[in-house]
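Hi F.,

I've been meaning to write this up properly since the lab meeting, where we talked about keeping a consistent format for the predictions we share between groups. The idea is simple: the sequence comes first, exactly as it goes in, then the structure tokens exactly as they come out, then a line or two of notes. No screenshots and no reformatting. I'm using this chain as the first example so we have something concrete to point to.
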Amino acid sequence: MELISTDPCTGAEVWRGPMASAAAIDTAVSRARIAQPDWESGPLDDRIAIARAFAATVKADSARLAQCIAREVGKPLWEAETEVASVIAKVEISIAAQAERAGFRSTGKGTVTEELRHRAHGVLAVLGPYNFPAHLPNGHIVPALLAGNAVLFKPSELAPATAEIMARYWTTAGLPAGILQIVQGAGETGRTLASHEGIDGLLFTGSAPTGRALARQFVETPSRILALEMGGNNPLVLWDIADAELPAAAALTIQSAFLSAGQRCTCARRLIVEESLSARILPPIVDLARDIIVGAPFDEPQPFMGPVVDLRAAARVEAQYAALAISGGKPLIPLRRLDPDRPYLSPAIIDMTDAEEHGDDEIFGPVLQLYRVADFGAAIARANTTGYGLSASLIGGDEALFDRFSTTIRAGIINWNRPTNGASSGLPFGGIGESGNLRPSAYYAADYCAYPVATLRQSAIEGTLSTGLRSRA
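Output, unedited:
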């Protein structure tokens, strides 16, 4: 069977190629298992040199990669260019993280030396998402390769062309054959790869339902590593904001909710506002949201956001928004389909304060739900009313208020006066509950790409037993 990716803005074909059959997956796994031991046993400096050559290759061809990302998933060109920059930066960050989190340690204590080293798992599968088709899988692949693993990468079926280009960059950089292989396909391909007995683990970025299915699939194989980075129903709390700070707070709200057309797992889904503040803060937020330019990647002036990734995604977001309205939500800005034939959606804000039902679905699109609350305790309670726990942010207040916020919010990323989707590559990235299985990525990806080996070393054979033995006198 063939896999075809299309430009969501035009419907034009971007890439076409075969889906991997079960036999092809068997062959790829066998090739990886043969190649991996030599890759791991070689010097770390050689792996670092190849990773740096990869970064240099990406940098030299960055315009082409950004254009491919923009065409394949509909991102504005400016945003695709920032993704490419993140791909390049990830290499040096991963090298530093590998040395700090998974490097070699040795401590002498008398005649005994205590050593800590890390070993590769072997062959790791990576399942990638479409929202960051280069950056997010790259965040698994680079530390996995540095640790000495071989990688089988199944990209999203919506972004196969981006994956093929990335693989070619690694080949150009000198990566040995069999160490990184692309396995193209849709959901069934991913399930086949994930269940293959020849892999030693799976690194996943995607939705919570798929993550739960993978967790069930792996429950009988605890010897295999499983790292899940899933979604979020992330709260953004606005509190105690002075008039002079209202424009900045509104801008942070728009960035949190509508970057990437709301297709970031860290986007704010729920806006929780102090009741007495709402009359002052909501008008500038609504005005900014109405001014957002929605357009194609190469439009001028550049749009703030493009379409969602395809027509199915647009229909799903529309259905979720309709359910909010049916349950009693009151639109401040209604969700609109801007083109019946293409997946362009307008930013939407809907007041759910008095709604009869409050679901906990992740709406992966440009929909922000508003909740007005009377006191900060109610704000915390509303923020924590979710099974997810990825990202949360407080805009406003003082240090004491943020300390209260940061020690009571259940999330893996907690920001103050920063957007919910502002995350540092120099820190761990991950969440709790439905957002992940406590295997954070970014700087901590080195932790799940290798396992620790503890050694006590002594050059001379020494040993006596003085108790618990029969006397020979």
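Notes:
The chain has a mean pLDDT of 97.
The CA atoms of residues 326 and 434 lie 25 Å apart.

If this format works for you, I'll send the rest the same way.

G.
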